[in-house]
Design brief:
Distance between the termini: 14 Å
Largest sheet: 9 strands, mixed
Bound molecules: flavin-adenine dinucleotide
Number of helices: 10
Number of strands: 21
Radius of gyration: 21 Å
Shape: globular
């Protein structure tokens, strides 16, 4: 049987590996280790915060190796997962179909979304586990005509234990993440190798013969008839550029800004993240306890249990770039205007809840939805194979998105990755 190497075990890698195994002998290279949820008692980081010792979120991996934080030029904090399941293990579990821009290009993923509906259980039946402030905020959004909707969640979040650890790795197994798909692929015979970082593609004569990867001081070429790169919106362009393939400066990240207030007894830190959302023009608003801002931003002074926060997630214009280890991001005037408008909407919701503007404080701008550096265009939408790639190398993540989908991308990435896998098999 022919062999395929898949780089990355997150949403795209897991979906591609599962769809390819059987037609190919699949090896998944994952640079991180097997994922473990954050198990440290949160009283420790709380103590460190109060002592003023938590100053740099980039050091978070020392406590939680599966979470990587870096800062883009311009200060935005970028969060990604590193380990089996990729960033899906840190995700809040929202399962939203966001393929409008792809459909405009003629990429119809209806069949793949239907396949995923059979593979990934989802539920919107989780109101019973919402906190009281979230219920009140939902009602306030309704009164303001903002049409809030409970978000569909991957897994059995109707059985949420209310520990508030969604973004630290659900310790109760109610949240679905891509490790389940990796496990399915492995049960079909796929091989998962953790701790192996793909350094570059080995390319000769317009085709790749394999992937050069390193693990500690070990170095090895994994031979492959086909290579699928799904190292995430930041990892994929970095790997391609190391392989001499130029990506485009069209990186989007979907910046997040939380607008918060002191709310005694809110206990949002113990609630499922993002129980519902309001959709605006290229932004969404949802209740979200921002651990990153709480631990690392000195403006977040109240106790964790006494904060209620609304997140704004913006679909940014996509003008950033990945250059080796560094990431450049530029906010456009349109981004700034939309962000200001969304913050205004949050302030109206808080006003409706009886919280005056002077009692609001803000979080650190952070982001976790990177993509767009190898955007599909009219020419390659039919093949899903950007012409800069060697003939047997494919990309299966949000790098292919023509623009930010403006919300949680996991489901759409997985659908696109499954479609890419079909093209790989056909080629
Ligand atoms: C806090 C947070 C919450 C989120 N919540 C949601 C949500 O609710 N719903 C949603 O749809 N999206 C959510 N997202 C976004 C979502 O998790 C990501 O967009 C998605 O996981 C990206 O999938 P991917 O396969 O492209 O990359 P990833 O899931 O990031 O996987 C890439 C994998 O590749 C590995 N890798 C990278 N480089 C290499 C290399 N050179 N060699 C080998 N391995 C490599 C990485 O270690 C990683 O495991 C959230 C993101 C964050 C940060």
């Amino acid at each position: 049987m022919k062999t395929a190497v898949v780089v990355g075990s997150g949403a795209g890698g897991a979906a591609a590996a599962h769809a390819l195994q059987g037609r190919f002998e699949v090896t998944v290279l994952e640079e991180g280790k097997a994922f473990r949820p954050f198990r440290t008692d949160l009283r420790l980081p709380e103590r460190l915060k109060r002592l003023g010792l938590l100053v740099d979120p980039r050091l978070i991996h020392l406590m939680f190796p599966a979470m990587r934080v870096r800062k883009a030029a311009g200060g935005t904090v970028l969060v990604t997962g590193r380990g089996t399941g990729g960033t899906t293990t840190l995700a809040t579990g929202n399962a939203v179909r966001l393929d409008l821009a792809l459909r405009r290009l003629g990429v119809d993923l209806a069949a793949e979304f239907a396949e995923l509906a059979r593979l990934v259980p989802t539920t919107t039946d989780h109101r019973a586990v919402w906190s009281q402030p979230s219920r009140l905020a939902f009602a306030a959004c309704e009164v303001l005509g903002l049409d809030p909707e409970p978000l569909p969640k991957m897994g059995r979040q109707d059985r949420c234990h209310g520990c508030g650890h969604c973004v630290l790795g659900c310790p109760h197994g109610v949240k679905w993440d891509a490790r389940r798909l990796v496990a399915k692929a492995r049960s079909l015979g796929a091989r998962l190798l953790t701790g192996w970082q793909a350094r570059r593609l080995v390319v000769r004569g317009g085709a790749a013969s394999g992937v050069l990867a390193v693990r500690g001081s070990e170095q090895r070429v994994f031979r492959a008839d086909a290579v699928v790169v799904a190292a995430g919106g930041l990892g994929t362009p970095a790997l391609l550029e190391r392989s001499g393939i130029r990506c485009e400066p069209r990186l989007f990240v979907d910046p997040v800004l939380c607008v918060a207030t002191r709310w005694p007894g809110a206990r949002q830190d113990h609630e499922m993240s993002m129980p519902f959302a309001v959709r605006g023009e290229r932004f969404i608003i949802a209740p979200y306890f921002d651990h990153l801002s709480y631990y690392f931003d000195h403006r977040w002074q109240p106790r964790a249990g006494d904060i209620f926060s609304l997140m704004v997630k913006l679909a940014d214009a996509g003008t950033g770039a990945v250059r080796g280890r560094s990431v450049e991001l530029r906010q456009t005037d349109a981004d700034r205007e939309r962000l200001a408008h969304a913050v205004e909407v949050c302030a109206e919701v808080f006003a409706r809840l009886g919280v005056p503007r002077r009692e609001l404080f803000y979080g650190t701008v952070n982001a976790g939805h990177p993509g767009g550096t190898l955007p599909l265009g009219g020419g390659d939408a039919a093949t899903l194979h950007p012409s800069v790639l060697p003939e047997n190398v494919w990309v299966a993540d949000a790098s292919l998105f023509p623009e930010s989908p403006g919300g949680p991308p996991i489901l759409t990435i997985m659908a696109l990755a499954r479609r890419v896998a079909k093209h790989v098999a056909a080629a």
